[in-house]
């Protein structure tokens, strides 16, 4: 079964996610922003989700983790929890 290593930032609004994505693109550290702004418990670990397998995350996030290019910041991705920025380090 495939697995991947990813991290994410979860916020309430799309506008907030867009703003954070711009800050990351301009050089701010993903993990620092995750610790400060993410509403997910993983935010305390810089957004680190660890290794995940298909079906462990909500469908919209699963799609990013297992189908989108590696090492890019994807999003905002909407789920029932809010808006996510997702970065995938590897998958196999």
Automatic annotation (TrEMBL):
<keyword id="KW-0697">Rotamase</keyword>
<feature type="domain" description="PpiC">
    <location>
        <begin position="1"/>
        <end position="90"/>
    </location>
</feature>
<dbReference type="Pfam" id="PF00639">
    <property type="entry name" value="Rotamase"/>
</dbReference>
<dbReference type="InterPro" id="IPR023058">
    <property type="entry name" value="PPIase_PpiC_CS"/>
</dbReference>
<dbReference type="InterPro" id="IPR000297">
    <property type="entry name" value="PPIase_PpiC"/>
</dbReference>
<comment type="similarity">
    <text>Belongs to the PpiC/parvulin rotamase family.</text>
</comment>
<keyword id="KW-0413">Isomerase</keyword>
<comment type="function">
    <text>PPIases accelerate the folding of proteins. It prefers amino acid residues with hydrophobic side chains like leucine and phenylalanine in the P1 position of the peptides substrates.</text>
</comment>
<protein>
    <recommendedName>
        <fullName>Peptidyl-prolyl cis-trans isomerase C</fullName>
        <ecNumber>5.2.1.8</ecNumber>
    </recommendedName>
</protein>
<dbReference type="InterPro" id="IPR046357">
    <property type="entry name" value="PPIase_dom_sf"/>
</dbReference>
<dbReference type="InterPro" id="IPR052204">
    <property type="entry name" value="PpiC/parvulin_rotamase"/>
</dbReference>
<dbReference type="GO" id="GO:0005737">
    <property type="term" value="C:cytoplasm"/>
</dbReference>
<keyword id="KW-0963">Cytoplasm</keyword>
<dbReference type="GO" id="GO:0003755">
    <property type="term" value="F:peptidyl-prolyl cis-trans isomerase activity"/>
</dbReference>
